[in-house]
Amino acid sequence: MKFSEIKERITGISCPVFGISWNPPVAECNTAKRIIRFLEDRRVLYNPSEMENPIHCVQSIFEIRKFLNTELQSLSEKSKLFDPIKAMRISCRKFLDKMNVEDDRFLDHASTWGHWASWTFASALGELRGNFGIMISQIATLYGIDVEDDLASIIPEKDN
């Protein structure tokens, strides 16, 4: 999805003073692109949940969280990229908490559609994807980045 299409889906980005333009630093743009490109290859964010193995999803979320943590450490807290990355990292942690990763039996049951653990998995995954979609749209809009269609499928539609 092109940056311009993503921009049209955004209903608003808060700005302290109306009409201010902003040119992000080159290093920050490169970090934003690196993060989007990494997430484009994470099918846990966009494949139908019934196609996903919960154990593999948990492992992928661990990897995403680790990657985001590394990227976050290189950013200033004043960076416009800092808050969306931090929010995604928090979403990963929340997902992992809901998945109760120390209990292998829970993850095994989460693979069995119809079992209550699968409902927890699907709900947690949907919440994570929703949060990531919002943050990805903000990053793509702020830094003018195109997003592959698979990942762009989690970006919320504009309200009419």
Distance between the termini: 20 Å
Helix content percent band = 55-70%
Mean pLDDT: 82
In total, how many beta strands?
0
Overall 3D shape: globular
Give the amount of beta strand, in percent.
Answer: under 5%
Regions with pLDDT < 50 over 5+ consecutive residues? 15-20
Structure write-up:
- The protein has seven helices and no strands.
- With 160 residues, it is mainly α.
- Helix 4 packs antiparallel against helix 6 (116-143).
- The two termini are 20 Å apart.
- The protein has one domain.
In short:
The protein is an all-alpha fold and 160 residues long.
Secondary-structure map:
Blueprint: H1 3-9, H2 26-40, H3 54-73, H4 82-99, H5 104-110, H6 116-143, H7 149-152
Helix pairs in contact: 2-3, 2-6, 3-4, 4-6, 5-6
Any descriptors?
single chain; 160 residues; mainly alpha; globular
